[in-house]
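hi support,

uploading two proteins for the ticket. first:
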Amino acid sequence: RDKRTAKSLVVGRPILLALEDIDGSPSFLEKALRFLEKFGTKVEGILRQSADVEEVDRRVQEYEQGKTEFGSDEDAHVVGDCVKHVLRELPSSPVPASCCTALLEAYKIDRKEARISAMCSAIFETFPEPNRRLLQRILKMMHTISSHSNENRMTPSAVAACMAPLLLRPLLAGECELEDDFDATGDNSAQLLAAANAANNAQAIIATLLEEYENIFDDENLQRCSISADSRVENSGSEDSSDDENPDMKDNGYHDAENEASPDTDEDPSRVLSGKLSESSGYAGSDLYD
């Protein structure tokens, strides 16, 4: 199984390729999420009721062997556990430790309006873009499921209890507890309390994100996030560009003079190199034009 996982088209993929393949087509995970949104909303206990492990492994293997679409007649519980399996096998947590801490700090705020605002800021300001997209996509599926709780018996809290341990791994691993939380280095009872506290916090955070999904992931926030991401890319590009650092380079004639130099020049290569170095240092009187 380890060898198959190492070469798998489904499990162990990096966060960047969790939702789509290199060619831009939807991944196994994305297709499974779409299936649950379409066929899983009326299935009682969806995401809570476990499927047979062998059936989950078999469905993953079938996908890798060419059965790359989910049919309407498939067992929703198997597909739901496929989603969990993929998330569990991601090489890194969907929500990194620093982002878990930011969410936890925001969740601890007493006043609801301030708490939701802080959680929103934590997501859009501290998350790497691939992680934010993945979290939002998983939450979208969970929100769709919980919005049909009258039929499937899965409230936001129930859905959160099933999925929070997979999404907020570092929180449950004790990697981002706040100073006033239980001391996980104490005796067994203290560690049990810390673990229970972390699990409760994780469930509550995800449940809150589900309940406030439409407010947090509204068009305004997504647009702001898109603009922020674009500006980061532009800033990164300008930092790497020597032309941007020296906007007057082309105006002072150095580059033009270099371009006008005859390609058949008999100058000694070392002297040409020296001339170019002199130009880049700002000395116009280089021996390139002696």
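and the second one:
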Amino acid sequence: MEVKKETWLHEFTERVSPLRISLPEGLLLGVITGLGYFSAYLSEVGYKAYFHLPSMYADISVNTLILSVSIIVLICLLGILSLQVPWIHQYGRFVFPLLIPLSLWFVTSVKMGFFFDWEHPYKWWGLCLFNVAAIGVLFECLHRRRLLAGALVLVVLVVITARISGELVAENQQWYLVAKRPQPVVVVDTYKDALIVAPINLQKRTIQPRYQLIDAKGEPDQALSFQPMRVGPLRVENR
């Protein structure tokens, strides 16, 4: 009789789960992908919320999705290594709560061009402290072989971090596309094939929350001429 070879994931779940729950590889990949989509969506919602745009205009870009999934895969990979490799299992719960938040901070900084507006520093410090605490709890759960509790902590970590980081990117973004027509307008976001523009005060670096959708594939005679300008960080009037 042929003996069925156990997969690596089955062996992994048998070792770490106190409830002995076996997860197929397809389900695990589906959960990671779904969580990546959800975190990318929350990041877009946070970005648009800063500009008073409704969540119905949240449009997930490929770059945001790849970035979100990559971060989740990295955390999951480190979690697996902390369970499989003895020295990582011993010291990972002390190292990763500092290493992973620094990595997240670096990735967010790249999106903002390493510019930080410290007008509201409590958001930065609050997010950093939350990440350190949540990742510390996550790897402590893995150290104690509590896989389900660790998965719950990971979901909460991803959801809150994605939502807040999206708003932080909007608060600190510097470069925008600006059209200098009689009333200057700035592109604050995109939705499908349309540009979302708003009137801008270049001196005060503020925008009015009166948005228009301009078809990016419109007729040439109706097109606006945009140029990249360093006009941020922008503030929304009456905010």
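thanks. also noticed: The chain has two domains: 8-172, 175-236.
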